[in-house]
Amino acid sequence: MRNLKKISAELNYPSDKDTSHNYLPVYQEEFNNTHNIKLLEIGICFGGSLKLWTHYFIDSEIHGIDHTKYTDEEIPGIVHFGRYEDLHNTFEDNYFNYIINDSLHDADPQLEAFHMYFPKLKAGGKFFMEDIPNTDHLNKIIDELHKYNVKIWDMRTISEKQDSIVVVITK
Q1: From the CB of residue 67, how many other CB atoms can be counted at a distance below 10 Å?
Q2: Taking the complete model, does pTM exceed 0.70, yes or no?
Q3: pLDDT tens, position by position, for the chain (171 residues)?
Q4: Which of 69, 138, 140, 145 has its CA 20 to 30 A from that of 106?
Q5: Mutual orientation of helices 135-144 and 107-117 as an angle, nearest 10°?
């Protein structure tokens, strides 16, 4: 299996997923396939994580969505600019292996994006909600998604940020 930490170091740490949040152990374990996958990240900012994904996944299709273009530098992958609420019909159902929501971090928009984009996942695919701000938001998410296969990764003890919680929902 390819090593995300090593690739991130080789790329000079392009994303906070390896620095202030320390999420790479989550993704290293949760990504069970690295070849011929389709990934969508909602909320790409400067594109650092897309750079990481395009180097990690082999022969794969990497998409990113953001409402604003934050940089004039080239962002790797297939980038869609606009509101995630307006772009979800751009993608077919059962298309992606992995969807990462790194956009608005409050429970309500996280859940809204989940309900819009979860149908876009293939069977066995995984939806990641990053940066859950606190246990109140986490509990709201857990309560609403209680019928789904949900796993919680609480990385706060080994990260610099107190919102370092990732929720993973497997389809």
Answers
A1: 16
A2: yes
A3: 788 888 877 877 767 666 666 788 888 999 988 899 999 998 877 667 888 899 899 999 998 898 676 666 667 677 777 777 878 889 999 999 999 998 877 889 899 999 999 999 999 999 999 888 888 999 999 999 999 999 998 877 766 766 678 899 999
A4: 69
A5: 30
